Amino acid sequence: MGNHSHGGPNESGTVATAGQDSSETFRDPGLPPHRPRLADTDPAAAKKAERQVSWLFIISILGTLLFFVSYFVVGHTTNIADLRLQNMLLGLGTACAMLGIGVGIVHWTKTLMPDTEWVQERHEITKEEDRQKAAKMVEDILDESGIKRRPLIRNTLIGAMALAPLPAIFMFRDLDTSKLSAGEMVDRLRYTMWDKDVRLVRDPSGLPIKASDVQIGSAFHVIPDGLNELHEGKLNEKAKAVVLLMRLDPSKMQISPGRENWHVNGIVAYSKICTHVGCPVALYEQQTHHLLCPCHQSTFDLTQECKVIFGPAGHALPQLPITVDPEGYLVAQSDFKSPVGPSYWERGER
C-alpha cells in the first residue's frame, strides 16, 4: 500500500476545505461595454424611428375611430351578416387602439430611450433631500425619454391615450338604455318568452317538434314558437330563451322531488346559456350524457339534472318543464323555474 498522505484530494488542493483562502475576494467585473444603437449614432435613423412610433400611435387613434364608426353606424338591424360585420370591426378597432399604443411605447423604448446600464449606489438621504432628489429623478426620466424634444411622439401619444378609453366607456354606458329600475332590470333577466303551451320549435327553421321525433342520443337546438316573428328585441329574447332538447333512458335519470313530470318519457329541455358567463352550451356527449361549454370547459351532467361536475360554472342549467299537446307536439308547461344565465345578486328561485 502506498502512502496517500501527499497528493490526495484534501492535500492536493482539488477540493476546497472550510476556511481555505477565506480572505480571497472576487474582483468586480463591472458593467459590459455599451453597444450604441443605430438611432444613437445616426440622426436620420433616430428621425425614422420617431416617425414609426408616431405612426403606431396614429394607428391607435384610427382604431378608436373605427370602433366608433362600427358601433354607431354598422349593425343596427337584425341582419346576421350586418351584426357579424359590426362585431368584426369592433374587435379590429379595439385591437388596433390597444396594440398601437402598446407596440408604439415598446418601439419608442427600444430605439430612442437611453439603454445604458448604470448602477446607483445605495446611500442614506435625509428627509430634507428626499423631495429634491425625487423631483430630480422625474426630471431625469423626462429628459431621458426625449418627450420634451420630440413633440410629434408626445402629441400623437396624448391623442391615442385620450381616445383609447372611450370605447370601453361607451360600451358600458350602452349596456342598457331603457332607464328601467333595478327591480325591472332583474325581472327582464328573470323571465323569458317561454310560457304555458308555447311550442318548442327548431332553431332557426321554426318547425315544431313532436315527441316521436326525439330519439335517444339526439339533441335539438330549440327556441320558443313566435320568436322568429319578433321585429324588435329578437336577439335579446333569443339570448335568454334558447334551449337544448335531448332524450335519454328514464332509468338513468336522477329526478328530484317536484320534477317528476317535467320530462316526457326521458325527453328533457335545459337552458343553453352557461351559468358561468353566458356562453352557449352546444356540445353534447351522448355516451357520458355530459353537456360542455366550449368557452371555459364547464361540464354539466344531464343524468343529474345538469348539475355542474367540472369547471367554473356556479350552478346547474335551469330546466324547462315540458309536456305534449293533443297533437303530440312538445310544449312548455311554464317559464323556467329559476333565472337563466350567470349569477347575479338578486338571483333566486321564483
Automatic annotation (TrEMBL):
Name of the featured protein: Cytochrome bc1 complex Rieske iron-sulfur subunit
Rieske domain location: 267-331
Keywords from the UniProt entry: 2Fe-2S, Cell membrane, Disulfide bond, Electron transport, Iron, Iron-sulfur, Membrane, Metal-binding, Oxidoreductase, Respiratory chain, Transmembrane, Transmembrane helix, Transport
Compartments reported by the entry: Cell membrane
GO cellular component, one term: plasma membrane
Coiled-coil annotated residue ranges, if any: none
Organism: Neomicrococcus aestuarii
Polar residues bias (residue ranges): 11-23
PROSITE patterns hit by this protein: RIESKE (PS51296)
Residues covered by region (Disordered): 1-44
Record family assignment: Belongs to the Rieske iron-sulfur protein family.
Domain of life the protein comes from: Bacteria
Function of the protein: Iron-sulfur subunit of the cytochrome bc1 complex, an essential component of the respiratory electron transport chain required for ATP synthesis. The bc1 complex catalyzes the oxidation of menaquinol and the reduction of cytochrome c in the respiratory chain. The bc1 complex operates through a Q-cycle mechanism that couples electron transfer to generation of the proton gradient that drives ATP synthesis.
Pfam families given in the database record: QcrA_N, Rieske
InterPro entries the record matches: QcrA_N, Rieske_2Fe-2S, Rieske_2Fe-2S_sf, Rieske_Fe-S_prot
UniProt GO MF annotations: 2 iron, 2 sulfur cluster binding; metal ion binding; monooxygenase activity; oxidoreductase activity, acting on paired donors, with incorporation or reduction of molecular oxygen
Cited CDD domains: Rieske
Membrane association type: Multi-pass membrane protein
Cited PANTHER family: CYTOCHROME B-C1 COMPLEX SUBUNIT RIESKE, MITOCHONDRIAL
Signal peptide: none
Transmembrane segments: 53-75, 87-108
